[in-house]
Design goal:
- This protein has a five-stranded antiparallel sheet with strand order 1-8-3-6-9.
- By secondary structure, it is α+β, with helices and mostly antiparallel strands.
- Helix 5 crosses helix 6 and helix 7 crosses helix 10.
- It folds into two domains: 142 residues, Jelly Rolls (Sandwich); 118 residues, Orthogonal Bundle (Arc Repressor Mutant, subunit A), CATH 1.10.10.
- About 3% of the residues have low confidence.
- It contains ten helices and nine strands.
- The chain is elongated.
């Protein structure tokens, strides 16, 4: 279904670099351009910022150049069935700005590592990674609203949320979380809610209740012990928040979901 012909990562060219292929290729070309560039699409010159991705369809003209500085990109020459684009629709022959460029760059590097390896399952791995690449590109294009914070702190925001869910027992506060990202408390609350559609402190509570449900199902610990392990100093407060989110008390939840006696 998916066949890479050749590819490269972090290929650099001088400030006079330019490409003009009037008939394109007989295969598709993916470019992830890590420097400002100029694309000529149907006669129109389009200036693009660093971290722009474009997928040229087969036999489509390629014309692009550096914008006066060093040009750097990742690139993949590939063949695939037309149904692939039906499953993962992305605008072809159109420069697409990628907000989380490190994620996409890392994916392409993983694909290259497989492509140049002799791993037993390299073809399957490459296909799965390419599917992720297409899905995440589509996702970023659809959700990107050109808010300046997306490209600057979005990755750190993801790391923060991962840390919250990995360590729900910590004494998370808005001030502490904001300090980790080196932004103001108000800014943190705005971008957290805009990104995850939940307030940061509501997410902390959700992470603690999620952990509590796991402990109730998988252990024989007393409710008070579980309350402490989830970061609560007050057992009554824990029980109130648990019932608010689950409609059940911790004991009722355990009785219905425990796996320790099954």
């Amino acid at each position: 279904m998916f066949n890479i012909l050749r590819m490269g990562c972090n290929t650099a060219h001088g400030n006079n670099f330019s490409v003009n292929r009037p008939k394109g290729y007989e295969w598709c070309l993916l470019l992830f351009v890590k420097s400002p560039a100029v694309f000529i699409i149907e006669g129109e010159a389009i200036n693009t910022p660093a971290n722009t991705l474009i997928i040229f369809d087969k036999n489509y003209p390629h014309e692009y150049k550096s914008s006066g500085a060093e040009y750097k990109n990742d690139w993949i020459h590939f063949e695939l069935n037309a149904s692939f684009f039906d499953q993962y629709p992305i605008n072809l022959n159109t420069p697409l700005y990628i907000s989380n460029h490190l994620y996409i760059s890392d994916l392409i590097q993983k694909i290259a590592n497989e492509f140049y390896s002799n791993n037993s399952y390299k073809e399957q791995t490459i296909e799965y990674l390419m599917r992720v690449l297409f899905v995440k590109t589509k996702e970023m294009v659809e959700t990107n609203t050109l808010q300046p914070w997306r490209s600057k702190v979005h990755e750190e925001l993801i790391k923060l949320r991962s840390e919250i869910y990995s360590n729900p027992q910590h004494n998370w506060s808005i001030a502490f979380m904001a300090s980790k990202l080196h932004i103001s408390c108000g800014h943190l609350q705005n971008i957290y809610k805009n990104t995850f559609h939940i307030s940061c402190m509501s997410d902390v509570i959700k992470s603690r209740i999620t952990y509590a449900k796991e402990l109730l199902m998988e252990s024989d610990l007393q409710v008070g012990e579980i309350s402490n392990l989830c970061g609560y100093e007050n057992e009554v407060h824990f029980m109130r928040q648990f019932k608010k989110l689950t409609t059940l008390t911790p004991s009722e939840y355990r009785r219905l979901n425990s796996i320790t006696d099954k």
